Amino acid sequence: MSAVEQLARQRVLPVLRCADAEDALATARAAAAAGCAVVELTMSTRNVEAAIAPLVEEGLVVAVGTVREAADVARLAGAGASLLVSFWNPPGFVAAATAAGIPAIPGGFTASELAAAAADGAAAVKLFPASPAGPEYLGALRPLLPEVRLLVTGGIEPDGVRPWLDAGALAVGLGSKLGTVGTVGAAEVERRCRAALAAAS
Fold first, then answer.
1. pLDDT digit string (tens) for 121-154?
2. pLDDT over 90 at 1, yes or no
3. pTM for the full model?
4. Comparing C-alpha atoms, which of 154, 165, 167, 153 is closest to residue 197?
5. Which of 13, 10, 20 has the alpha carbon at shortest distance from 43?
6. Does 69 participate in catalysis according to the annotation?
7. How many CB atoms are located within 10 Å of the residue 47 CB?
8. Catalytic pick from 126, 157, 177, 188?
9. Catalytic option among 5, 22, 40, 69
10. Concatenated DSSP letters for 23-68?
């Protein structure tokens, strides 16, 4: 099963914006304890590559987000990433990921941005930032882009994922609202992930 299919099945994507690789490892493990087998680390995490391989060895599907340019792809592929995500559609990003054998999820907000990213061959497209627009915006986009798989992220609460899924989201990414082990502790990260998964079911 592809990483995107696993994400679609999980329906919730923990986006772990951690201070460093150690915090990323601990936070990903807390999310996994809640039942999240797919997690997203971010390039804003110091030395993020060091956290990827250990988590993959533990059986997790590791996405890496906040990819800013196509030149990052080879390094992340070499570190073991299974999925690459960006808040925009960097030139050459999808092509570089495809060449590396990794699905890419570029980002956009308007219908034209999302359609252009899909036309590049993206496995899915990220609607970001989602919360200012609301699920109604996603619902309005679905008839225009019926074949585009949309991951929504940005300011969504752990217990607020259901309206986005009902509006047609492939999955819902949760970032700062989940916290990290370094900020709220492992038990709280796990609790919030469990709440999100329950809301999505």
1. 999 999 999 999 999 999 999 999 999 999 999 9
2. no
3. 0.96
4. 165
5. 20
6. no
7. 10
8. 126
9. 40
10. HHHHHHHHHHHHT--EEEEETTSBTTHHHHHHHHHTT-EEEEE---
